[in-house]
Amino acid sequence: MLFKQFNKLTTFNHIRKFATQVSQFTPATLHLKSGQSFTGKAFGADKSSFGETVFTTSVTSYTESMTDPSYKGQLLVFTTPLIGNYGVPLNPSGKDGRYTPEMFLESSGIQCSGVIVADVAEKFSHYEAVESLHDWCKRHNIPGITGVDTRAITTILRDQGTTLGQIAVGESHKQSPEEYFDPSPINLIAEASTKEAYTLNEQGDVHVAVMDFGSKANIIRALLKRNAKVTVLPWDYDFYSARDNYDALFLSNGPGDPRHASVAVENLAQTVKEWKKPIFGICMGHQLLGLAAGLEAYRMTFGNRGHNQPVLALSESGSIKAGRVYVTSQNHQYALKLEEQFPDGWEPFFINCNDSSVEGIKSTDKSGKQIWGVQFHPEAFGGPLDTIDMFTDFVDAAKKGKSI
Ligand SMILES: NC(=O)CC[C@H](N)C(=O)O
Asked: Which pTM was predicted?
């Protein structure tokens, strides 16, 4: 009986194929500023693109990674060989790309500048898929390259560090080093952030302000799920002056170098010192919180991007148990410096078990003020949900502090 059902399911008539075979695609070359080139086939948009070449070890969730605004300005190498096999779902978004409950992926469109894969799937199948990875990239004007040795590319990036690159479609012209476009001097946060404030779930129990540095949709979902009223604010919004309207402050993830956001850091420094209500920062939000606390940020060699990064909790707080290792989802190039002496009022909260980088900071304030920053993504999508209860801790702290 079961076998019959299985057979029915595997008739494969639900599997769809590209109209054009990969073998018919235009040749394309990935050039790295460090001198190496890899030739394969182009898919997606028929155009060349520049970016910072970074790799992710995530096995699933190419659609979520590609729509994560933290990947802005980057050419994303997937170490998992087969990418595209479950296609791309429908992804409605609100006015000006804003979050709406119908949004399925992490933002309204593809955020990275290009994708590099070993083997783009010509066939795709998923009950929610509406198009192929190739068609989706084409529609968003983003090029991809397939048929290249992503193991060799990753080894180069691990050894030499994140390198500028170009996906050159239909040409094999090698760039001279000064021709590479470098996104690192640009304030990408300003590009990724909402331009105007907007509110979701008016009837929520507590009012949370989200400083939008390029927020992933799942952060907003995680807050709404816990029945918070959420106001999404532009990255340079003067939160300090408006703080009395809110029960808690959330600092989102975001693209690029945190040191470009000095306006946000100054604003935060004042808030952190004087406000008594909960503050929670993730990735970029954590880095900005650290800068506001007086720590320094630095650029890592190749960063951490993947869904299996182990972090050790150094102390207890809310749902987090001291001495436990949590497996986390990550996507970052910058980190806070691990100072021997942390600034007054702060302590490290988590440490990465692979490279000992700072994975979290926490306020030591004895008055009950709750401030956490984490380098990883508790909301994941994709990735493990080991630390998802930090959102419950945060919203509960906001409820408790409502009357302060
Ligand atoms: N996911 C993020 O928020 C990334 C933060 C920052 N852009 C970095 O690369 O470190």
From this structure: 0.94
